[in-house]
Amino acid sequence: MRDKWSSRSTFILAAVGSAVGLGNAWRFPGLAAKHGGGAFLFVYILAMLCIGIPLLMMEIAIGRRTRQGAPGAMRAVNKKGEFGGWVAVSNGIAIAIYYAEVFAWVILMFILSYKFAGLTGNTEGASSLWISTINTTGTTSGFFTISWPVLGCVVIAWISCYLCIRNGTSSVGKVVKYTVSLPVICMLILAIRGFTMPGAMAGLAKLFIPDWSALGDSTLWVDAIGQVFYSLSVAMAIMFAYGSFLKKDSNIAIDAVVIAFADFFISLLAGIVMFTTMAGVGMLDNMSASGISTAFIIYPQAIVSLTSVPWINAAFAYVFYFCLITLAIDSLFSIVEGASTAISDKFKLNKKKTTTILCLVEAVLGLVFVTGAGLACLDITDNFVNSYTLILTGIFEVIIVGWCFKTSKVLEQINLNTEKFKMPAWWFNLSIKYITPVILSALFVWNVITLFRGGGIYGAGDGYSLWANIVFGWLIMGLSLFSGLIVKAIVKAKARKGFVEPDYDWETELD
Predict the structure, then answer these.
(1) Per-residue pLDDT at 461
(2) In which band, very low, low, confident or very high, does the pLDDT at 284 lie, cut at 50, 70 and 90?
(3) In this predicted structure, what is the pLDDT of residue 344?
(4) What is the residue range of 485's domain?
(5) Per the structure, how many domains does the chain have?
(6) Which of 36, 375, 414, 416 is most buried when burial is the number of CB atoms within 10 A of its CB?
(7) What letter would DSSP give residue 130?
(8) What span, in angstroms and rounded, lies between the C-alpha atoms of 22 and 13?
(9) Helices (H), 112-217
């Protein structure tokens, strides 16, 4: 018998927890600052309605109908579509490996928050706290140095992840009740504090008042669409897995809308916190679209400039980084859950053992990011996964469903148990068959042009060595795109020993 969510609210909280991550807390506000505030919000909402919500509904509905992880679900839609599911799983594995490193940095900053008391007014010291502690070279030449504090925090991150998902939906359901609500409470506290700071209204004006001239900048559209795509956790095998744990009477149409707008609300709340705080300390123009820079360099400068009272600044730092911890843990374990579900379904393995082994393997592979070259390697991998393989996975999914299957069957599953709100056929069909593949293809082409426009194999001014780009970029992307062939070879090898792979189609009724 397959695991089931204990309640509708548990599923929504788990999905929201997966969707809401560190990118909401730091990258969303940075992009809003970069692209004219309200203009970015306008394009973001437009992209969420046209691409994000339909794609989210599609993955959840297919997962519930087929009772399979991403590869099995896509195979049930079309037998040749299984490869798309394995690319999604590979995306999740790659992201989890380096996301755990970022999670570890957040844990480290939480532990070190007491130091902000002694750095009051010292913005230079605050900005160097993270860099000096992680002991990075900033290049790909520091593989023989290890940051022991970061290594310890990585161990904590992976142990926390395993404990959250070791018993599947049962343990996840218990965790998300706290890890979804706590960051909201923390952000509300920080937002209230932000409203009381001088210049807060100037910060809010920059966030909400549109600079409509920014709409003529193509990078605004690229960044807004990309942020929606990554933020909702689609194309990572997560929502297929979470959908497969739903009961048959679940209301996907309404639940997906709730998840998407909850994700947007928390992003907006993070934006309010960031803009009011940075305005209050006179650093509104220092905001960066880089999440790493904002969280670990710029925001520490803001924290030590908050007040002249050391303990208040340190307390603020503890609340802020605790908020980031609760955001990070949900995203990490949901990514691992998506991959674990797919692998255990395909090879008929014990789910708990699969999760244990997967966590251990990913933790070992992630040790490269603990070295002095870790930051540079993470930058390369993150760029290739987010700019290329995730987008390609989205294109694969909508082409398989929209052009190699009947969207009406998926739409029937979406609207199966709803009366108050039904996903309109014109909206869903237009998005899955036309808007999403066209927009994602254009986004992919834009990223490829940007990649080679700088005359390098990675991008303009990246400064990383060719071999590092090949190993941590092109190789990882290649392994993701050809992961379906790798799995097929494993299945053939196991078949010689009597293994029979599961073979379900859309009409197969499963518990």
Answers:
(1) 44
(2) confident
(3) 94
(4) 8-495
(5) 1
(6) 414
(7) H
(8) 16
(9) 115-118, 123-134, 148-165, 169-179, 181-195, 200-208
